[in-house]
């Protein structure tokens, strides 16, 4: 029962922020269509790298759904540099993951995380611009499909009103996006609660040296986990003794890299391009890990303060009821998403639709 209470604590603290973040992610998706993104990034210029790095930070695309988007950008004329920048900053951050970072961790990490996503994307784009600016020949006959979307892109759509865009954004947020991340978000909450409940305090302090940082890099590169789902795990790791900088490595490397995506993208930006991207992600993550740990020690910032506080101490009665209602809604959305994306396809003999 205590373990279930730990899971419920995570849901109470994070659910209002996750739902708010997902909603704003849906609004961004509705008001910033991919046609505008392609127009902004489809230029062979230094500014396209900056634009791609900035634009990717708030966009609500997970590690698998960003792949077809990045491929579309590449085929539409975007450089390897702009494509790579967008490919890195987008899955590393997003308004939903930023919101849950504030809920489970603290304000400094909430600010640092999107900045880190921008820096790793910007470095990758600059390196691509100077060392891999040639166009990769692509022989694909079929478009790359997203594992995170069941809807076909509409063509020649009539202009939508503000209310229609608002409704479309909400539908995308709580139907498409929540279904896409449900399995991994549930897994992230479960993993975070497991670490919180079972791992002895300070056992993860051994990961605070360089050997531990390298170990987190090696763990994060091949695995898939979306930015939002990685947050409760990182919060639990810090609460159990891991330095915030080391946890930041997990937040950056985990969402931005996984084996399947690297294999797909090497066809479009080349093996050299993939190596550059991985090098940029790891390099920025390791450098920032040292810098962030220095800041936390120097200014005595209390990491994971929000997670350590009991939910009854986080606000008045109104906020407590908001937490409870949000947590119940979150459970319903997670169960619905897992049923639609994981269970139904197996009964139909189809592969699961969740990203991974």
How would you describe this structure to a colleague?
There is one protein chain. The chain has 356 residues and is mainly alpha-helical. It has one domain. 72% of the residues lie in helices and 0% in strands. The longest helix is centred in the C-terminal third of the chain and has 40 residues, at 259-298. The radius of gyration is 20 Å and the shape is globular. The two termini are 31 Å apart.
Summarize the structure.
The chain is mainly alpha-helical. The chain contains 14 helices and no strands.
Features:
356 residues, mainly alpha
Provide mean pLDDT, rounded: 83
Please tell me the total number of domains.
Answer: 1
Unreliable runs, pLDDT <50, ≥5 residues? 152-156
Overall outline: globular
Helix content: over 70%
Strands, count: 0
Terminus-to-terminus distance: 31 Å
Beta percentage is under 5%
Major β-sheet, in short?
none
Instruction: Give me the Rg, rounded.
Output: 20 Å
Number of helices: 14
Order of helices and strands: HHHHHHHHHHHHHH
Structural class: mainly alpha
